[in-house]
Amino acid sequence: MLKEINEVIKLAQETKTDVYVVGGYLRDFLLKKKSLDIDLAVSEKSENFAKKLAKKINGKCFKLHDDLQTYRVAVFNNPDLEYIDVSVMQGKNIKEDLSRRDFTINALAVKIEDFDDIKKNITDCFGGLQDLKKKEIKAVSKTVFNDDPLRMLRAFRFSGEYKFKISKETLTLIKKSSSKITTVAGERIKNELFRILNNEKSAQYIAMMDECGLLEKMFPVITKMKKSAKNFYYHPKGLFQHCFQTYEALENIFIKLDKYFPKSKDVLEKHLNEPFSENVNKKNLLKFIAIFHDCAKPECAKRMDNKMRFLGHEELGAKKTAQIMKELKMSNKEIDFAKAIISEHMRPSNLAKSEVITNRAQMRLFRDIKENTPDLLIMAMSDWHSYKTLKKKVYPKKVLQQQEKSVAKLIFAYFDFINKKPKDKIVDGNVLMKEFHLKPGKIIGELLKYINNAYEEGRIKDKKQALKYAKSQLTVLKKKHKIT
Questions:
Q1: DSSP single-letter state for residue 108
Q2: Which residues, other chains included, contact 83 with Cβ-Cβ below 8 Å and sequence gap of 6+?
Q3: pLDDT tens per residue, range 173-217
Q4: H or E element: which one contains 70?
């Protein structure tokens, strides 16, 4: 038994408090999954009990939720336990407490004194044990989503994490309750949503959420995307179908990195798993971006030369997505990443169609997009793949194959470029000032930038060529900086 549990038992006896282990720890224990946190329901004031427990185990106590009077006790120096959450019992007894929980598989309890024999002493008032065997997510009551609408997202998150199905009754209840999700704070929605997106096959859960009406309630722009004229788009169900199939294609690419990027798979995997914040990394943020990447097309749609054009949809889409992310209380770094990808997502199309990509074009892409280069290329590739299933072939098979090869080459070249030792400068500012009789100023910096770019692209190779190239740029730069 965990030493911290022994201390909880002693404290319960000392304070004459009824203490139950509830919820997730028991669920995971019965599923033979490791859990690093324990939830306790106590009959006395949770604050008093939590502070006394923290003192006993040399932990740290702090308030977690005001509404539930929940306190977290951080556990130190134990690899098998990170924290213990202590909440005041909801109701007169443990049965009433369990009746207010979300799903039957979480509505389980064991008195702390019986912790050493959980299976024989478990309290199950709502069929949670049976539902664990059936691998089913079922709401405890018809009011669970009224009490906390975020539980609707948790249903899909649990379904994905545990590979459980959601019962028909619970899905029906979610449909009826979907409008209540608008009352939930943005940061709470973000945390649950990105845990769903973190599933490698999350598209099926996003589709189910859409069927239940949750997506449109959380993000009204999706309603506009669905209502936009279908004859404007190649996909028979319109713009949102295209964005969702881009999302599916992106997820498929992530699963098959070794197929599409055999030379870059490991370094690319590491890059995509770089975290932004809790629950958010590049991989699942790209999935989020895929859903909204073309959201501004309805506003930008214009018929020109008997064709529909969407001029400016990239920049407007970046702004609209940034606003959505602000409402979810996402970080500036996350928002800047999304804006960078969406505003440039059309750029790789023409470049990747070419069988031969010049070093100059390649280096210009790397310099402009910087560390977001692999992400932009994969997003563009997903965009193209969304057309694969259509009867009307927008991209011929040969074109798609060429694009895939080009993206793989560009991603490999990008990682090769950033891992190379920087080249020594072939000239510096002093050399330029002496050679062209210039004074210190912005013109020197610009000349050095032009020279370094040309050097990286292989257009110049030594000092003599660098000075000749600099001289060719001088007339325009002197005019720009008003130097006679």
A1: E
A2: 36, 37, 38, 59, 72, 73, 74, 75
A3: 999 999 999 999 999 999 999 999 999 999 999 999 999 999 999
A4: strand 70-74
> Which is it for the CA torsion 318, 319, 324, 328, positive or negative?
positive
Among the residue ranges 155-164, 332-341, 442-451, the one predicted with the least confidence is 442-451
CA distance 170 to 209: 12
DSSP per-residue codes, 228-239? S-GGGSSSTT-H
Q: What is the pLDDT of residues 80-102, one digit of tens each?
A: 999 999 999 998 999 999 999 99
More confident of the two residues 431 and 48: 48
Question: Cα–Cα distance between 377 and 346 in angstroms, integer?
Answer: 10
Q: Which two tokens stand for residue 247?
A: 């999302």
CA dihedral (46, 140, 182, 278) positive or negative? positive
Residue at 405: amino acid letter: K
- What are the backbone angles phi and psi of residue 13, rounded to the nearest 5°? -70, -45
Tokens of 207: 């589709």
The Cα–Cα gap between 24 and 45 comes to 22
263 token code pair:
């030379």
Q: What is the DSSP string of 336-351?
A: HHHHHHHHTTTTHHHH
